[in-house]
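Look over this one:
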Amino acid sequence: MWIVYAVLSAVFAAATSILAKLGLNGVNSNLATAIRTVVILLMAWGIVFYTGRQTELAALSRKNWVFLIASGVATGLSWLFYFKALQMGDASKVAPIDKCSIVFTLLMAYFILHEEIKIRGWIGLGCITVGTLLLL
């Protein structure tokens, strides 16, 4: 089932790029990011309350909080830089570079989380990198 969610994530990420590019015309990229963030905030908390998961807040450890907050900061910075790049460049060029996050994620997973990457994974990383360069 995770693969279905991953594909849906990719489809909506693609839609995000196109919809954002259309919406950024004449709008400051930081303001656009703030508007987008409010929408996401309302959606996420709405889902939490709809599913009754808000009671689980008390069970979060200090480590959970530290890493979730750090992840939120990283997400915010990613969005700010992405929207600025999207405002200044073509979506067809910005999005592939943004998707190089796959390369960085696998490298971080290897070095930080000590996850195994098989030879085909290393080849795939090379292909993604070369493919991104060819799209520019």
